[in-house]
Amino acid sequence: MRGSCGWFYYSTYEDRAYFYIVKTFRKLLWAGTWTLTVIGVLLVLRRIGIMAGLGKWLISPRFPFDSGLHNFPVLTIAHITPGLIFILLGPFQFRNRRNSVPGKSRVVFIIASYTIGISALVMPFVVLPLGGLNEAVASSFFAIYFLVSITMSLRNMNQPGLRWEWLLRAYAVGLAIATVRPIMALSFVFFGLKPETFLGTAFWIGFSLHAITAEVWINLKRTPPIATVW
Fold first, then answer.
1. What is the pTM of this model?
2. What is the rounded average pLDDT for all residues in the chain?
């Protein structure tokens, strides 16, 4: 519909469709976020158990995930401790999109994020990845992407919209590790793929899926419900 001043408006039907899509997508995102948060916490607790000497109960011979972590205690603790902080604080970083003043929670979250990203870059060169070179490349690539996103969120601190977008990108990628394990489980149940064979590919799928989902949500939030063009 066109007004007398040359404006273009979406129809009422398109407005309703847009709001329905955004509302539904938001609900799915939050449901997925809390589910992955629980999975992420369980993964961290499992690694802590392995570090505490409970590996014989927590590591299956058929799925030797994290079996070499006890050989690198300092690096492992430096990765999983801020990882737990990141997982627990992450959902609360998006309560107020327009607030440009970082609170204590945001500061702790940023510090934990940098620690995770740097340790994730180091780990493939120290701990032999179960998924081989494919996993190492995927881990390094998305660790760099994660660090760049966190840095860009800080650089745009005075621009709440951009800061929110970059922070969301970082959070989505950081939470992706909780998606990789279900992907591995499904690949074994339905296709019989072993971790050594498919773990690297599962990394690419899980992290890419999260990055794409973040971009979809960012673009949905950028799109106004009523478009106006001169």
1. 0.81
2. 82
